[in-house]
């Protein structure tokens, strides 16, 4: 996962909180790890709700995160029983209790402002709308391939195919590009499985897409500029020493 504080990729290690009351704030005989309560949501219809809370510490910035999960089980009977509570959940919602908002990711100043704005927006909405986050990442990828790889094809899929087929690019980036193409298709188009259910993009896929986009920032923009600056410093030292300039054969 991506740390909501520092924006760095970290291992997802959540620990459950221990609670001392039930869903109705009644003291428990011994500490528990989850809150469960049954509430009447309308006439002759009950909903069994399970709320779980977890905490974790970012291994990079050492700050505490709190995650809340609420799972609702629809029962639909006049009175709930132990057997009906085992029914599969109808809805699960997850949100961060701490921090309340994500920190903006750190992006090099070398990245063009409009691309940086799109990336930050895609990052901030990743949890709430991973599909739209992936759509923004798709637009960023199209801009990167156009501006920095010189691929002017009208369709993004054609730009990706041209990039993949060019062995001058590192194999890791070309392999990942295959998956970015599919994630882009799932986010931008309605695709269903054999049963007719929509196959959508989840948070983990959207986060991974953002990580790959950051890698492409380094590959296309940051690393070439860094190499250029270091080479210029070395050329200056070579010139001061009276040595012959470095010759690079094409």
Share of β-strand residues: 15-25%
Question: What value does the average pLDDT take?
Answer: 79
Distance between the termini: 42 Å
Poorly predicted runs: 77-86
What is the string of helix and strand elements? EEEEEEEHHHHH
Structural class: alpha+beta
At the first level of CATH, the class of the largest domain is Mainly Alpha
Task: Give an account of the 3D structure.
- The chain has 2 domains: 15-98, no CATH class; 113-225, Four Helix Bundle (Hemerythrin (Met), subunit A) (Up-down Bundle).
- A hairpin with a 6-residue loop joins strand 5 and strand 6.
- The longest helix is centred in the C-terminal third of the chain and has 39 residues, at 203-241.
- The chain has helices at 113-124, 130-147, 156-164, 171-188, 203-241; strands spanning 15-16, 19-21, 27-32, 35-42, 45-57, 64-74, 91-98.
- The chain is an alpha+beta fold.
- It has 5 helices and 7 strands; from the N terminus they run βββββββααααα.
- Strands 1, 4, 5, 6 and 7 form a 5-stranded antiparallel sheet that branches. The chain has a two-stranded antiparallel ribbon with strand order 2-3.
- It is 38% helix and 20% strand.
- Helix 1 runs antiparallel to helix 2 (130-147).
């Amino acid at each position: 996962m991506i740390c909501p504080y520092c924006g760095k990729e970290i291992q997802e290690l959540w620990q459950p909180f221990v609670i001392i009351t039930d869903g109705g704030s009644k003291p428990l005989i011994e500490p528990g790890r989850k809150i469960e309560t049954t509430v009447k949501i309308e006439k002759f219809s009950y909903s069994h709700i399970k709320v779980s809370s977890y905490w974790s510490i970012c291994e990079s910035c050492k700050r505490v995160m709190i995650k809340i999960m609420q799972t609702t089980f629809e029962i639909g009977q006049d009175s709930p029983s132990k057997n009906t509570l085992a029914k599969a959940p109808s809805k699960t919602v997850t949100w961060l209790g701490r921090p309340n908002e994500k920190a903006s990711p750190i992006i090099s100043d070398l990245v063009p402002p409009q691309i940086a704005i799109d990336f930050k927006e895609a990052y901030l909405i990743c949890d709430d709308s991973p599909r739209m986050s992936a759509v923004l990442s798709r637009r960023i990828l199209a801009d990167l391939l156009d501006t920095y790889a010189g691929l002017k094809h009208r369709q993004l899929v054609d730009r990706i195919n041209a990039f993949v087929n060019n062995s001058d690019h590192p194999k890791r980036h070309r392999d990942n590009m295959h998956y970015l193409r599919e994630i882009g298709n799932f986010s931008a188009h309605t695709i269903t499985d054999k049963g007719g259910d929509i196959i959508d993009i989840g948070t983990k896929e959207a986060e991974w897409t953002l990580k790959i986009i950051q890698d492409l920032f380094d590959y296309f923009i940051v690393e070439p500029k860094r190499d250029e600056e270091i080479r210029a410093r070395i050329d200056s030292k070579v010139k001061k020493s009276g040595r012959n300039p470095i010759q690079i054969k094409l």
